[in-house]
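Below is the record:
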Amino acid sequence: MMTGGFDLKSQSGSKSKRESIMASETIFSSSINRLKEKNDLA
């Protein structure tokens, strides 16, 4: 999944920066949600 994003990044220029930021934010928020779920289960 991440490798595909990097492939897209290398192909396009200005759009890639915004897309990579959105992707990192999505990964960040999903990891936070995962931590919250673990805390709720604990």
